[in-house]
Amino acid sequence: MEEWRTILLVSPDQGASEAIAADLAAAHFKVVRASGEAEVSYCLQRTTVFSAAVIDLTLGERGLEVLELMAEKLAGKPILALIPQANLDLAVRALQCGAYDYLLKPLLLEEVAASLSVLFDRPFQQQIDAARRNQWLRERYLQPVNSRVTEMRRQMQLLGLLARTEAPLLLVGESGVGKTFYSRVLHFLSPRRFESLTFFDCRNKSGAEALLDLFGHSRGLFVRQQPGVLVLQECFRLALSVQNRIVAFMAEQEQFTAAGTGKGLRVIGTSVHLPEQAVDSGQASRYFRQAIAGGVIELPPLAQRREDIPQLADLFLSLLAGHFGLERKYLSDGAMQRLSESSWDDNVLGLQRTLIQAVVLSEGVEIEEQAIQTAAVEENGHLLQLNLSSFQLDRVEESLIGQALHHHSGNLSRTASTLGISRGTLYNKIRKYGLENLTKKGESLVG
Questions:
Q1: Which of 40, 247, 328, 436 shows the greatest Cβ crowding within 10 Å of its Cβ?
Q2: 109, 121, 118, 120: which is closest to 25 by C-alpha?
Q3: Which of 135-144, 221-230, 295-304, 364-373 has the highest mean pLDDT?
Q4: Which pLDDT belongs to residue 395?
Q5: Helix or strand holding residue 243 (H, E)
Q6: Regarding predicted confidence, which is higher, 421 or 302?
Q7: Nearest 5°: phi and psi at 129?
Q8: How far is 279 from 447, CA to CA, in rounded Å?
Q9: Model pTM?
Q10: What tens digit of pLDDT does each residue of 11-60 get?
Q11: 31 with 21: CB under 8 angstroms?
Q12: Are 325 and 339 in contact (CB under 8 A)?
């Protein structure tokens, strides 16, 4: 007779817990239920050997601490996290705390048992342990905002659901809305999170160049046949001949996958155009549209999600301070009002650029409205402008320091004061990025 596996089920919702436990029992699992941290600790100290765990993260922030405790005590056993609707930030953090997978609410009861059964065959623990030792370096700044806007939440729910599948997806939105960032979120939320993630910019590529890069002998991205995720940025800019070649490749790969002879690549596309628009304008073949757009995520422009601007601004200022060791700056009420009322033609990218400039322009811990107004005017200046979501963080730091030096005419003391760092730290960063030419003549770099 088959031995039943024992599951630790943690949920503060008694009704939901009873329903999930009944469904797990019907799927031949034994269930031990707990409603909070004290009961979880008690269960983990017993002699019961748990095969896996399910935790309902409506427990809130405290739930992540309970999850970390479970990950430590269960010694590599699969953990499934149940996440409130559309809260991808919590889903990301749950995976970073040791969960193997997640389900977004509302969910079908049978999904829990089905997902657990799959997790027993996923040897993730070694990769999770390595990533946690490295403090999730690649994903450290992967913090999607839990949107307050209905349409954005609908799209995030869809992204979270489709991320767990193998379907090819298309992320659509205006320039600067975060298509690259959400491609990274999608990759991390997927079962392929420990596989490679590669970006290929389809813009300004001739058909011959794209064919060589994608299908060239030995070095082509499609030829390597390594499992992973390939993001085709502005995919409808590819020549039709290249699109047709990709369609053929994806059809062939699907046959191999169905036959169990390989996993292959998962293909994600991004575009400023909806697939129907690309087909109607002749940019895309109908076959390519069908192949690349197994699911479509439409990211709304920032002007349609103004309620999220305070969260986005606070998050970005926090990330700037945390990554670069700068003094944490805060927005005055007037500055926040100015941000909320701006048009944001450049979307989230424009918001990030403006905040970088505002940090440079503000010598105290508070960013005033005038700094935001001036930053918006200067945003298209000659100095390098970059965004944090590109994950080119050293280049962002170089830009930030360069702009601060330029603003203070190379005066090191005033630049260090504005950034909230010591002169010695500033010296080191100037040398690191070769910015000596921006320092005031006569200023010594000897710390």
A1: 40
A2: 109
A3: 295-304
A4: 66
A5: helix 240-258
A6: 302
A7: -60, -45
A8: 60
A9: 0.86
A10: 999 999 999 999 999 999 999 999 989 999 999 998 778 999 999 998 77
A11: yes
A12: no
CATH number at residue 20: 3.40.50.2300
- CA torsion angle for 175, 180, 183, 185 (degrees, to 10)? -110
Smallest CA-to-CA distance from 269 within 227, 231, 221, 215 is with 231
Peptide linkage before 106 cis (omega within 30 of 0): yes
Report the DSSP beta bridge partners of residue 53. 8, 79
| Distance of alpha carbon 97 from alpha carbon 112, whole angstroms | 19
The last residue of a domain, from among 111, 139, 167 = 139
**Whether residue 162 sits in one domain with residue 287:** yes
- The CA distance from 410 to 412, in Å, is 6
Name the residue range of residue 324's domain: 303-438
Q: E strands along 108-227, which residues? A: 169-172, 196-201
- Structural domain ending residue among the three candidates 300, 333, 353: 300
What distance in Å separates the CA atoms of residue 255 and residue 262, rounded to the nearest whole number? 10
Report the amino acid identity of residue 195: E
Look at 1 and 174; give whichever has higher pLDDT: 174
Chain centroid, CA 110 distance in Å: 28
Note the pLDDT of residue 314: 95
Structure tokens given for 372 = 């935001």
Please, what is the average pLDDT of the chain? 88
